[in-house]
């Protein structure tokens, strides 16, 4: 309920543990018995605050009304009266002892008619009254409110759910999906406790049985998780942040934080799926469907053994009466994805109970249904999610149990592993016309990260797992091998494009040798784009897309002709005119100066000074001129002012000491913590250079510091490639010359690590 005055929340947080235990006598603990005990303790405390008086009742709503009190939850109370005098003084005599006890309080004082009027105008208040329960006072008055509010909700719920759904959608957009968040809000995020309240309200209206056993179990586990979070932190908090996960997992007797995240994700998905189903039931009641002459919903065939009935897909009567075909569940899922119609709950339950397991290898009909399902576009994810909620996916792919709700701790990933794989297949369907074998693209997309969660490099350990799935599905040996190759090489193109010099023939030759043919190259290119789109916005950019496309074009030329493409010639504009030359064009910065060491470091530092990130850099010497060409992007999204940038570049490359001092000062100030850096050497990755690869935490001015360190250590850098993923970078430096001896490598490595 809405309150006008709240107690001092910070004071309550600081002293809640002592005050609750000593003043109110509310026990801690986790689980349903502990929540019931807290509710009983609150009831006893509150009954002592309201003196016996006719026409007055103290009503609990929210968690106390449901007897589901969290250790540090709010009290939601309504002082209900029948117009008796002295109500304000009576309310003060109730509220102030609650605040004095250090408890958080949402309160209101209303008559029955006032409470019902507010509920009629505010659907959230109407939902709150469904939990109303008498704590103390006049039971007749309380019953008048409770029964009338429930009756009003039953009569108006279908209409009010339209507005409630809009409010709920806005909340989901603000808080995200609990199933896929590393630090989700257990109450407000989609699939959280607030959504269980909606399911309870829909059930109370008689629209559908929304609180099925699976939902009730998920609800209790989410409540337990919130109890443990409160107990771990020692105050009211609903967001399961990273630093509290180990403690919460221990309080819940779970093995580790990942087990906790997987459990929360699974429960949230159960709640979300049930709410989608409940909203659809309400939509059917509100709008109705096409009816036949007998007044019943029309049944429309949509696929073999599948018909549409009242806006949902159900089995044809002939399919239920006959011995079911093992591919039936896949065919129903494919029909749901293709038509974008939901599968009826009863149909899912029947398939889970009676559809026989698929043989190995699968029959052709099952393979065709899987391809249709994976290539259905927007209909894939909801159809797959529905089948997964009822255990059907485990029958298709036993490996799915290990993948389900597996968290991905890199912040660039927006989904759990299983959802990421399905989302990648969905994104791959957009590129189906770009490849010769779209069916293998879709299957490769579904399986590309199947090695995650196993020890070792997932691109390597996932190969035999993916090949085993492809064999069981019934693919021939050559296609099984191709699926394994897609899994093994699915990171090849983006890694090479962002970390290697694409003008170097060795780079192109190595990729061409690994890929083998243009058909596989096209599949990998499509898979890369689908994988990035399914990962999240931070995993892709126009610049990364151009790099990958350039690499693919060069490798295609090598595969088609057997001839490696020539490296691009330097910009002619840099070879003419007085020095220094500075060109700024879009995301390109090009500088020419008198031949001298350290030009790359100077340019990189000047760009960092203007808050520009260097994505790639090339340094060369042509006709006595030192040339540096960089591709850049704004570090904070705001483009740099070209006038001062051009002026600083001219002064810096001309040797202006004041600019250099500014660069060093800014660079030193930018140094920070992060993961321990690491240097990796690559011996045969370039034609005329060795490759030093730095893996470290991202920081402003990092390229400048490392380039300075290499220059001071006597190394000559001809190119640099910067790859950023989340908070980490992989920076590759091409050092001119042959393979250095052990002492030189150790000296260069020490200089680089010291600069980081």
TrEMBL record:
Residue ranges of every copy of the ACT domain listed in the record: 588-664, 691-756
Enzyme class: transferase
PROSITE patterns reported for this sequence: ACT (PS51671), HD (PS51831)
EC number: 2.7.7.59
Record keyword Transmembrane present: no
Ranges where the HD domain occurs: 417-524
Keyword set, alphabetical order: Hydrolase, Magnesium, Multifunctional enzyme, Nucleotidyltransferase, Repeat, Transferase
GO MF, any single term: [protein-PII] uridylyltransferase activity
Annotated NCBIfam families: PRK03381.1
Name used for this protein in its record: [protein-PII] uridylyltransferase
Species assigned in the record: Micromonospora profundi
């Amino acid at each position: 309920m809405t309150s006008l005055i709240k107690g001092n929340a910070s004071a309550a947080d600081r002293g809640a543990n002592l005050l609750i235990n000593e003043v109110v006598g509310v026990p801690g603990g986790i689980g349903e018995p502990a929540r019931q005990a807290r509710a009983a303790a609150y009831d006893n405390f509150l009954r002592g605050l309201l003196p016996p008086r006719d026409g007055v009742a103290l009503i609990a709503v929210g968690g106390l009304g449901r007897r589901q009190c969290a250790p540090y939850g709010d009290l939601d109370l309504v002082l209900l009266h029948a117009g008796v005098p002295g109500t304000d003084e009576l309310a003060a005599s109730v509220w102030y002892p609650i605040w004095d006890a250090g408890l958080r309080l949402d309160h209101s004082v209303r008559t029955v008619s006032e409470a019902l009027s507010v509920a009629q105008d505010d659907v959230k208040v109407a939902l709150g009254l469904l939990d109303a329960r008498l704590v103390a006072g006049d039971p007749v008055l309380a019953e008048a409110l409770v029964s009338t509010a429930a009756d009003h909700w039953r009569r108006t719920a279908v209409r009010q759910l339209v507005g409630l759904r809009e409010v709920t959608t806005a909340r989901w957009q603000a808080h995200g999906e609990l199933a896929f968040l590393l630090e989700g809000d257990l109450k407000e995020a989609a699939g959280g406790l607030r959504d269980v309240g909606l399911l309870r309200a829909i059930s109370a209206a008689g629209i559908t049985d929304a609180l099925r056993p699976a939902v009730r179990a998920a609800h209790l586990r989410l409540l337990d998780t919130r109890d443990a979070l409160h107990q771990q932190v020692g105050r009211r908090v609903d967001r399961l942040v990273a630093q509290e996960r180990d403690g919460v997992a221990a309080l819940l007797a779970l093995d580790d934080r990942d087990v906790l995240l997987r459990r929360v994700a699974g429960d949230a998905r159960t709640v979300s799926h049930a709410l989608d189903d409940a909203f659809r039931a309400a939509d059917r009641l509100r709008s109705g469907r096409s009816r036949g002459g007998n007044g019943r919903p029309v049944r429309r065939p949509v696929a073999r053994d599948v018909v549409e009935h009242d806006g949902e897909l159900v089995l044809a009567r002939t399919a239920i009466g006959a011995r079911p075909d093992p591919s039936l569940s896949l065919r129903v899922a494919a029909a749901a994805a293709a038509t974008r119609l939901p599968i009826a709950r009863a149909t899912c339950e029947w398939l889970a109970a009676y559809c026989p397991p698929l043989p190995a290898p699968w029959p052709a009909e099952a393979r065709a249904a899987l391809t249709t399902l994976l290539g259905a576009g927007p209909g894939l994810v909801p159809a797959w999610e529905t089948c997964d909620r009822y255990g059907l996916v485990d029958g298709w792919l036993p490996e799915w149990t290990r993948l389900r709700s597996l968290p991905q701790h890199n912040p660039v990933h927006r989904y759990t592993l299983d959802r990421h794989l399905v989302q990648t297949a969905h994104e791959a369907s957009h590129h189906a016309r770009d490849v010769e074998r779209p069916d293998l693209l879709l299957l490769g997309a579904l399986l590309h990260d199947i090695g995650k969660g196993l020890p070792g490099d997932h691109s390597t350990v996932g190969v035999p797992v993916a090949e085993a799935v492809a064999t069981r599905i019934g693919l021939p040996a050559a296609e099984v091998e191709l699926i394994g190759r897609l899994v093994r090489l699915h990171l090849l193109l983006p890694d090479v494009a962002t970390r290697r010099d694409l003008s170097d023939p060795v780079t192109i030759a190595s990729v061409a040798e690994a890929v083998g043919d243009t058909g596989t190259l096209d599949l990998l290119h499509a898979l890369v784009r689908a994988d990035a789109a399914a990962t999240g916005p931070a995993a892709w950019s126009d610049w990364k897309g151009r790099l990958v496309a350039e690499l693919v074009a060069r490798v295609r030329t090598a595969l088609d002709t057997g001839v490696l493409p020539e490296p691009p010639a330097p910009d002619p504009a840099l070879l003419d005119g007085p020095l220094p030359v500075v060109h700024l064009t879009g995301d390109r910065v090009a500088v020419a100066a008198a031949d001298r060491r350290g030009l790359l470091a100077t340019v990189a530092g000047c760009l960092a000074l203007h808050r520009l990130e260097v994505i790639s850099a090339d340094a060369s010497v042509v006709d006595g001129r030192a040339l540096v060409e960089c591709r850049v992007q704004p570090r904070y999204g705001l483009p740099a002012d070209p006038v001062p940038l051009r002026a600083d570049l001219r002064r810096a490359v001309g040797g202006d000491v004041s600019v250099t001092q500014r660069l060093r000062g800014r660079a030193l100030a930018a140094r920070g913590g992060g993961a321990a850096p690491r240097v990796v050497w690559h011996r045969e990755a370039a034609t005329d250079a060795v490759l030093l690869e730095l893996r470290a935490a991202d920081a402003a001015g990092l390229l400048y510091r490392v380039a300075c360190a290499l220059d001071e250590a006597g190394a000559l850098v001809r190119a640099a490639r910067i790859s950023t993923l989340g908070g980490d970078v992989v920076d590759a430096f091409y050092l001119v010359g042959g393979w250095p001896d052990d002492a030189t490598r150790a000296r260069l490595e020490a200089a680089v690590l010291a600069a980081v």
